[in-house]
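Tip: read the tokens left to right.
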């Protein structure tokens, strides 16, 4: 029978800090993207936001090709 590994309190706290940091970075990134496409009040649906980002990306590719 294998004995389960013990997870220390310190390790759990480090994982929590890392996860919290990653979560905050993701939230700020989403906010920056919304602001960049003009959705400062976060009123666009996710689908509209994705479509607008795709359109901007396609336009940037077209301008690079010229």
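Filled-in amino acids:
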């Amino acid at each position: 029978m294998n004995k389960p590994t013990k997870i220390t309190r310190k390790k759990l706290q480090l994982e929590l800090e890392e996860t919290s940091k990653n979560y905050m970075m993701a939230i700020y990134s989403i906010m920056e993207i919304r602001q960049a496409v003009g959705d400062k009040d976060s009123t666009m649906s996710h689908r509209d936001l994705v479509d607008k980002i795709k359109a901007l990306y396609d336009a940037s590719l077209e301008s690079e090709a010229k």
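The radius of gyration is 20 Å. The chain has a mean pLDDT of 90.
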